[in-house]
Design goal:
The structure is a single chain. By secondary structure, the protein is of the alpha/beta class. It has helices at 48-53, 55-61, 96-108, 127-132, 199-215, 260-263, 269-281, 298-304, 337-350, 369-372, 378-389, 419-431, 437-447, 488-491, 498-511, 513-517, 557-562, 587-596, and strands spanning 29-32, 65-68, 72-73, 85-89, 112-117, 145-146, 173-176, 181-184, 219-222, 288-292, 314-316, 325-326, 328-332, 358-359, 394-398, 519-523, 530-537, 540-547, 553-554, 572-575, 598-599, 604-608. It is 27% helix and 15% strand. The strands form 6 sheets. An 8-stranded parallel beta sheet has the order 11-10-9-5-2-1-15-14, covered by helices on one side. A 5-stranded antiparallel beta sheet has the order 16-17-18-22-20, sandwiched between helices. β7 and β8 form a beta hairpin. α8 (298-304) packs parallel to α9 (337-350).
């Protein structure tokens, strides 16, 4: 067991409905994207030794848990989310010995470590899949194989079992000449979906998970885990297959229907997650499980995370990340603040009695929120951070978010490395011709996953401290040019920096039970400028107000009515305004704002009421 950097919440404070309270109830998680975090050997790729070298920085920030994106052996078709061996480390990242060293060093500093679990699919180079290509092999039914559509020659256009399209472009079916059948891949054609209907598959996955838990990791973040259960008809056919009793949805503008409704939060998800809990985590303590949850809404999140149901501790629900796109992520629209309030409010209300929620705006699949919803100024980064971290749940910080890192601002297609991005250009611009090159390049600049994957900005040297400035090769993807202004070296000792502000947010969650577990209530729901809510626990109550615009705005009516006559009487907790006094939050400025009834651009204030 590691020694946490925070005090435990007393059981008199209700968190997720479990007794005693889980250790993670007031914890903060930090996501590391290993290939972009720290390169220790100047080959252009981040690695495990690089992570170990930066543990003091992470401990200094105050976070409790480190989540590592995949470092397993992989052909890297989708940056490691295509795993060829779950129990070995890809040489680009190091060795199992390096992982053991990193775990020991993290635990010594009170940091827990969770690994990415990718078991909806494997790489097509995994030994399981290679064996599955033989119909007579015991692994033959470990993946979802189907014959060609009736009346069509296998391997020819239109012979696919149904009209499903991959989320990464093209058909979701790939023909395999050796087996003479098609396999399902919701993502890349090198990421075949496992057949979770087969109990042998499930128990092989559980055995692997137990192997890692026994090795000393502290849990898992589970990639697209709510897609492991598919919808079949009474005869075992998928929607849209020849003879299926379930009719598929119509094809879309790219010429395919979507597997999403039939492969997300399927009929056996609860059963599988309960079985996993029993087979892997029963009898263990000190762990954390979080599932990436495509297709799951706020209500289902409450069910899956309710401890009495024995499934997962928390989920990543994405409804709030879809409010600023029109139909597809490649058609971004301006954020409507009331829509964000509605979706986050739904998530908060769904777990008000039991269950838990993950709090996040950034990760390896999302653009930088300082660019997405802010204006890239330090103050907007602070305002958005305050907004997120003052909600009830477990905050997740993506590497560099605590510095205010921004989108990459790439202007050419050859600057991108992301498979989804490159495939989208081919599918939407060159093949289906449903989008112009100009519009999709603009969308990439706003939404491509590569915006989050540029190297961590440690300092203002040539490669931002990610690797040596005089290295013979450069990073695998370009460093953001603004690293000369936005970097850890410039911020760690600056009390007014975004980094210092995040340290304050993390400390508040550790120290103040109201922030960690207090009831949440939205106010001023109709305001398109100010996001306001209260947090209440016993006799303690906080009012949170965040001006989400670059213009001065009035404190909205409901918030104004709650303000005390003397804002200094019970102390302002925090303010995003830069503090001339150098204490990281400017009480005097907050008091002046509240007395004037206005909030400065990107000003966020928390006040006891």
């Amino acid at each position: 067991m590691t020694t946490p950097q925070r005090t435990a919440l007393p059981d008199s404070v209700r968190t997720n409905g479990a007794t005693p309270n889980p250790w993670w109830a007031n914890a903060v998680v930090y996501q590391i994207y290993p290939r972009s975090f720290q390169d220790s050997n100047n080959d252009g790729m981040g690695d495990i030794k690089g992570i170990t070298s930066r543990l003091d920085y992470l401990a200094g920030l105050g976070v409790d848990v480190l989540w590592l994106s995949p470092v397993f052996k992989s052909p890297q078709d989708d940056n490691g989310y295509d795993i060829a061996d779950y129990q070995d480390i890809d040489p680009m990242f190091g060795t199992l010995a390096d992982v053991d060293e990193m775990l020991a060093a993290a635990h010594k500093r009170g940091l827990k470590v969770i690994m990415d679990l990718v078991v909806n699919h494997t790489s097509d180079e995994h030994a399981w899949f290679q064996a599955s290509r033989d119909k007579n092999d015991p692994h033959a039914d470990w993946y979802i194989w189907r014959p060609a559509r009736e009346g069509h020659e296998p391997g020819t256009p239109g012979a696919e079992p149904n009209r499903w399209g991959s989320y990464f472009g093209g058909s979701a079916w790939q023909y395999d000449e050796r087996r003479g059948e098609y396999f399902l891949h919701q993502y890349s054609k090198k990421q075949p979906d496992l057949n979770w209907e087969n109990p042998d598959v499930r128990h092989a996955v559980y055995a692997m998970m137990n192997w890692w838990m026994d090795r000393g990791i502290d849990g898992f973040r589970m990639d697209v885990i709510t897609q492991i259960s598919k919808t079949y008809d009474a005869n075992g056919k998928l929607p849209g297959e020849s003879g299926s009793l379930i009719e598929d949805y119509p094809v879309g503008e790219e010429g395919y229907s979507s597997p999403f409704p039939w492969c997300s939060d399927g009929p056996r998800v609860d059963e599988y997650l309960q079985e996993m809990r029993r087979e892997v985590f029963a009898g263990r303590d000190g762990f954390i499980t979080v599932g990436e949850a495509p297709g799951v809404d706020a209500v289902r999140n409450g069910v899956i995370t309710d401890p009495k149901n024995g499934e997962l501790d928390m989920l990543f629900v994405f409804t709030h990340m879809d409010v600023d796109c029109d139909g597809t992520k490649w058609n971004p629209v301006p954020l409507k603040l009331t829509a964000l309030k509605q979706t986050l409010g739904d998530q908060q209300r769904a777990v008000c009695k039991a269950g838990w929620t993950s709090l996040f705006f950034c990760n390896h699949d999302q653009p930088r929120v300082a660019s997405r919803w802010g204006d890239e100024s330090p103050r907007s980064a602070k305002a958005i951070g305050l907004l997120l971290h003052m909600h009830r749940g477990t905050p997740y910080i993506y590497q560099g978010e605590e510095l205010g890192m921004t989108n990459a601002h790439f202007t050419r297609l050859d600057q991108y490395r992301d498979l989804e991005t490159l495939n989208a250009y081919r599918q939407r611009v060159e093949e289906a011709q449903v989008q112009t090159a100009e519009s999709i390049m603009d969308a990439f600049a706003k939404r491509s996953r590569d915006n989050a994957r540029t190297p961590m900005q440690w300092d203002d040297s040539a490669y931002a401290g990610f690797m040596d400035a005089d290295a013979a090769v450069g990073p695998w993807i370009s460093v953001n040019p603004n690293h000369d202004a936005i970097n850890a070296a410039a911020e760690v000792n600056d009390p007014d920096s975004v980094y210092a502000f995040y340290r304050r947010l993390i400390a508040l969650r550790h120290e103040d039970p109201v922030v960690a577990a207090g009831d949440w209530e939205l106010i001023d729901a109709d305001s398109e400028q100010v996001y306001a809510f209260t947090r209440t626990l016993g006799g303690e109550r906080l009012l949170v107000m965040v001006n989400m615009t670059a213009a001065e705005t009035a404190v909205p009516a409901e918030s104004a009515a709650l303000l005390p006559a003397d804002p200094t009487a019970d102390a302002v907790v925090i303010d995003t305004y830069d503090a001339p006094a150098g204490d990281g939050y400017d009480v005097a400025h907050a008091v002046a704002s509240l007395k004037a009834g206005t909030l400065a651009p990107w000003e966020g204030i928390v006040v006891r009421i």
